[in-house]
Design brief:
The protein is 67% helix and 1% strand. The chain has 14 helices and two strands, in the order βαααααααααααααβα.
Length: 323
């Protein structure tokens, strides 16, 4: 069984999973760009990127800082039209995310920094179509991925191991804020259906992006809706406090509850990559032992125990021989 330090393999799985989310995000957006933001689209981006700035670094920095933080200013300066520029940004994101999925070497600070910058460039001009919760969550999670991604070639293995363990703490904090505030917003909304546990009786009729399974969930009896909502509130309000528990069992309990809840969300409605991204964030609750790897501390304790048992049995055999 392979040895590791704490969360090295968890961190690598987290980076790989974030690359998958980026691939979903860029690929989904790429096919919608002409209809949403093209010259004949619903909200043409060319109206916001009015003039091509001169290809001067100082001018480009000014536009990025004071107008919109997007690389479309660079494509405009290169005399590339806005629609083609957005296609280039999305295709570059698809290519980089695919590389990070295929090879571990590409899961580094430069690739994830580029992915975050590309998505921010599209998000900043995306208007209402990119103002959903999952878009903001991807930018925040993507920034954490970027700043805690390894530096290729020059980062020692021990430093990488320490970075992997440290990086999971802000990931857990992000997941805590996401889930806990989700419940708080519901309970503080002023809608009594959340307190009376009747909100799910109306959710399937009013949710923004339902799919065919939602109809079947809607047919369930009211007591089932009440129990389901009670479980969701428990998972959102109570289990996030277990994210930081010193006991591994409590963290795994929180992990399984969070994953199960988000799988249920995917079965009742279409929330784009939101639930998949939330599941990726739950990886911060695991350590390498949960993935089938022995940590060095665990192996050291195991070897020490084996040595003690061997030494004791050897002493007993010598005693019998003496008698």
């Amino acid at each position: 069984m392979a040895l590791s330090d704490g969360q090295v393999h968890v961190h690598n799985l987290f980076l790989w999973s974030m690359a998958v989310i980026y691939l979903f995000a860029f690929a989904s957006l790429y096919h919608q760009l002409p209809g949403l933001y093209g010259d004949n689209g619903i909200l043409p981006v060319a109206k916001d990127i009015v003039k091509s700035p001169p290809l001067e670094f100082s001018r480009l920095v000014h536009y990025v800082q004071h107008v919109k933080p997007t690389l479309l200013w660079v494509t405009q300066a290169l005399k590339i039209d806005v629609q083609t520029g957005m296609d280039i940004l999305a295709l570059t994101g698809i290519a980089l995310a695919s590389c990070a999925i295929i090879t571990r070497f590409a899961r580094n600070i430069f690739v994830f920094g580029a992915l975050w910058t590309l998505y921010l460039s599209l998000h900043s001009v995306g208007n209402v179509f990119l103002w959903f919760q999952w878009d903001a969550l991807l930018l925040e999670a993507g920034f954490l991925t970027f700043i805690f991604a390894p530096i290729p070639l020059i980062m020692p293995a021990r430093l990488h191991a320490q970075l992997a363990s440290i990086s999971m703490w802000p990931v857990k904090w992000l997941l805590f804020r996401l889930m806990f505030m989700t419940a708080i917003v519901k309970l503080q909304s002023g809608c009594q259906t959340w307190w009376k546990l009747t909100a799910l009786q109306h959710l399937y009729e009013t949710q923004g992006l339902p799919h065919f399974l939602g109809w079947y969930w809607h047919q369930m009896p009211n007591w089932f809706h009440s129990l389901t909502l009670l479980y969701a509130l428990f998972t959102d309000l109570v289990t996030p406090w277990f994210f930081f528990a010193p006991t591994r069992g409590l963290r795994k309990f929180a992990f399984y509850n969070q994953v199960f809840l988000h799988v249920c969300y995917m079965l009742i409605g279409n929330y784009n990559f939101y639930n998949l991204l939330a599941i990726v964030l739950t990886l911060g609750l695991l350590d390498d032992r949960d993935l089938g790897y022995q940590t060095r501390m665990f192996r050291l304790a195991h070897d020490s125990s084996q040595f003690t048992q061997y030494d004791t049995s050897k002493s007993l055999r010598l005693c019998r021989f003496a008698h």
